[in-house]
Design a protein that fits this description.
The chain has seven helices and eight strands, in the order ααβαβαβαβαβαβββ. Strands 2-1-3-4-5 form a five-stranded parallel β-sheet, with helices on both faces. Strand 4, helix 6 and strand 5 form a beta-alpha-beta unit. Helix 4 packs parallel to helix 5. Bound molecules: calcium ion (CA). Calcium ion binds next to loops.
């Protein structure tokens, strides 16, 4: 785990007048923004996906290996994860499995070979969808939107997001309720 300098970026929670909360996100970000975690070790592909998703108005973070992906997911609580299978250190299947044990999150996997796709379909790693490289960016966006729509529907039925505590304020994302 690398050490992040604390003073490089102002605390956004405090900048908005709220006490720091357990997720590190502002209230606006928690309620309104679609957040996507892209896990891909090839910088050209990662930045192409990130650029395209930013155009959609989504908040995007990129992780280049498995451990960074797990750290990012715990911090930003993404609405969906785009996850490459071939990663250094820990493969995408293992990342997917560990993500689901922490907090259920929709995952779209990127595979490079047919045998990876066979594994994905045959063994059920908890991915919601997959695309084989090279893929169309338009298609990836469409599938991501579809996964987000499905997730939004089911999150009104099951409270998948734990409440967040900020000072003496309790924020229940699933119920869209703030209480003291
Ligand atoms: Ca890769």
């Amino acid at each position: 785990m690398s050490h992040q300098p604390r003073d490089s970026e102002p605390n956004r929670s405090q900048a908005h007048g709220y006490p720091p909360n357990s997720s590190g996100l502002t209230i606006d970000e928690l309620f309104d923004e679609t957040t996507v975690l892209i896990v891909e070790d090839e910088p050209a592909i990662a930045s192409a996906i990130a650029r395209r998703m930013t155009v959609e108005g989504w908040r995007v973070e990129v992780a280049a290996d498995g451990p960074s992906a797990l750290e990012s997911a715990a911090r930003i609580m993404p609405d969906v994860v785009i996850l490459d299978v071939m990663l250094p250190g820990m493969d995408g299947f293992e990342v997917c499995r560990q993500l689901q044990t922490e907090r259920p999150v929709p995952v779209i996997m990127l595979t490079a070979r047919d045998n990876e796709t066979d594994m994905l379909v045959g063994l059920g790693f908890g991915a919601d969808d997959y695309m084989t490289k090279p893929f169309s960016m338009r298609e990836l966006i469409a599938r991501t939107q579809a996964v987000l729509r499905r997730a939004n529907r089911s999150s009104t039925e099951t409270n998948i997001r734990p409440p967040i505590v900020a000072g003496d304020i309790r924020i229940d994302i699933a119920a869209r309720r703030v209480s003291r």
